[in-house]
Amino acid sequence: MAEQPRPTAASGWVTFAGWMLLLAGLWQGFIGFLGVLSDEFFVVGQNYVLRLDVTTWGWIHMAIGLLLFVVGCFVFMGKSWANIVGIIAAGVSALSLFAWLPWYPLFAITVLVIDVLIIFGLAAHGGEVGTKG
Length: 133
Hints:
The protein has 133 residues and is an all-alpha fold.
């Protein structure tokens, strides 16, 4: 019987990044669904950079949330390409959340920090884990 390889810190970071991709995807999808469902939930002042409607932002967040969730599933399947796509998806998510700051700053900052941790976990340790395909 072959001996199983011992988990390393690298596999811990990739597992963390996978779980955070799933959670960030769910959170993005939830906030997007809320934006599409109810425009009155979010309030913003007159001075904001991207003057998109809250419903438009809702659809953007739902699309990004779906992307994050699907990539998180593929990270858990051990696909090596999912590390690169996860870094790109977390970067897109971080940029969208930076633009979303005037509408819901606490949510945006929280998920933005998680996106940075996802990028670190996948960029610094994603190649160290034995992945397939």
